[in-house]
Design a protein that fits this description.
Elements: H1 4-11, E1 26-30, E2 33-36, E3 41-44, H2 47-50, H3 59-71, H4 82-95, E4 100-105, H5 108-123, E5 127-131, H6 140-143, E6 160-164, H7 179-194, E7 202-205, H8 221-232, E8 235-239, E9 266-269, E10 280-285, H9 286-289, H10 304-319, H11 322-341, E11 347-352, E12 357-361, H12 371-383, E13 386-387, E14 389-391, E15 398-401, H13 409-425
Parallel strand pairs: 3-13, 5-6, 5-7, 7-8, 8-9
Antiparallel strand pairs: 1-2, 2-3, 4-10, 9-10, 11-12, 12-15, 14-15
Helix pairs in contact: 3-10, 4-10, 7-8, 11-13, 12-13
């Protein structure tokens, strides 16, 4: 009988990436741990790509899903939907956007797709500003604004995209500057770019670049950008698919580190809010959200079951102050990881905030990416019982650490020790 891996290769596209030379089948999870088909237990420091936000098999979420599924699973947005309205009310209030409207989708890709539709329709322009090293999804339009070659399989696009400096603090032409000078240089670059374009619809930016390797600009960069954008009437879209819901610890939304000029015009979210259920969405001011002059619905966005999961998950997150836990335990974890990386020549930088930590690996003594080392550490960590992710611009050489936000101090210590063993053994 063929292995599951053989069966996978026979029917799934080659470009659907799998981790590990010998891929694992995850069968179940509990808390911050998962088990594979051989019964081996792992400490999960990646959470299904930052999606299992609170915990695996969280009783409050599984109960809400089961109860709702027992009533009705699906109706579409053509009918009133109480769980959808209730979750929209809570998200609108938390978003910081005045007079907010919320549209639910099934993924972050679809959320960013909808945000681009809104921005281009509102501004009557197909020109988009995006950040170098960015990632916004796998649809045709979001691939067209993704500034990371590894995740952009085509240059064809319905949009004209122009890329701005600033998403990566320690690489590029301004890396040697102070934070203040870095922001000034990036703003000057933006101003110069706008002098060469037609009307621009929006700037879309991740406050912390996820797939790009958890890179971020100095706090305040997007506020400085916002002042320029406002003079031109250009919208600011904050892609919070990975940074939302308190993962950075310091803020509930990533944009709040850049909030001196006010909230974004449009905010997109997904991943963690559903704790594994397919939930994404867009928040925007009413005048922007309501600008479309044709009908639209969502067949699966706002499903009663996924909305019930989102409500239960968000309630748990807020009631247990998981943002505060991300700040406290994340602060401890990054200290332990920095100590673990001390003296490891392949480690160029440890960066991040809250429970969103990146370890960039390069060829020792250089700035050249080292994807082979990243893959080797990923494999070694798995052998030690730890699941982590990877990413990074130019080449995939950054280890990505993003456990569920309920991570305990003991689990942080345990994971850091396993990671140190993997790093020093490669």
């Amino acid at each position: 009988m063929s292995s599951l891996f053989d069966r996978h290769k026979a029917v799934i596209p080659d470009w659907v990436a799998l981790y590990y030379r010998d891929p694992i089948e995850i069968t179940h999870g509990e808390g911050r741990h998962v088990w594979d088909a051989d019964g081996r237990r792992y400490l999960d420091f990646f959470g299904g790509i930052l999606t299992t936000m609170t915990a695996h098999a969280l009783p409050e979420v599984t109960k809400a899903v089961a109860e709702q599924a027992g009533r009705i699973i699906h109706s579409s947005t053509l009918y009133l939907n109480r769980p959808m309205v209730e979750l929209a009310e809570r998200i609108a209030g938390l978003s910081g956007i005045p007079d907010a409207r919320v549209f639910f989708t099934t993924s972050g890709t679809e959320a960013n797709d909808a945000a681009l539709l809104l921005a281009t329709a509102y501004r009557r322009s197909n020109q988009i500003l995006a950040m170098r090293n960015s990632y916004h999804g796998r649809s045709f339009s979001t691939v067209g604004i993704t500034g990371n070659r590894a995740w952009s399989p085509t240059s064809l696009s319905p949009l004209q995209t122009l890329y701005v400096h600033g998403g990566v603090r320690t690489r590029g032409p301004y890396a040697q500057y102070t934070d203040e000078r870095f922001i000034e240089a990036c703003v000057a670059d933006l101003e110069d770019l706008l002098g060469h374009t037609r009307e621009v619809a929006a700037l879309i930016a991740e406050p912390v670049q996820g797939v790009g390797g958890f890179t971020a600009p100095p706090d305040g960069l997007y506020a400085a950008f916002r002042r320029v954008l406002d003079r031109h009437g250009i919208l600011w879209i904050s892609d919070e698919v990975q940074t939302g819901w308190g993962r950075t610890g310091e803020h509930f939304w990533g944009w709040q580190a850049h909030g001196q000029a006010g909230p974004p015009d449009i905010l997109t979210f997904a991943k963690g809010i559903g704790n594994g259920m397919s939930v994404g969405g867009v928040v925007a001011r009413a005048e922007i959200m309501n600008c479309l002059d044709a009908n639209s619905i969502s067949t699966f966005g706002g499903s009663p079951v996924t909305m019930a999961a989102g409500l239960a998950n968000l309630s748990y997150l807020l009631e247990h102050d998981l943002q505060g836990n991300a700040r406290r335990v994340g602060g401890l974890l990054i200290e332990r990881i920095r100590a673990a990386c001390a003296g490891v020549e392949a480690v160029r930088e440890v960066r991040g905030r809250g429970l969103m930590i990146g370890i960039e690996l390069t060829e020792p003594g250089t700035d050249r990416a080292n994807p082979d080392a990243a893959s080797a550490v990923l494999e070694a960590a798995r052998e030690n019982g730890l699941l982590i992710g990877k990413g990074g611009g130019h080449n995939t050489s950054t280890l990505r650490i993003a456990p569920p936000l309920s991570l305990t101090v003991a689990e942080a210590e345990e994971g850091a020790a396993m990671l140190e063993q993997a790093l020093r053994g490669v």
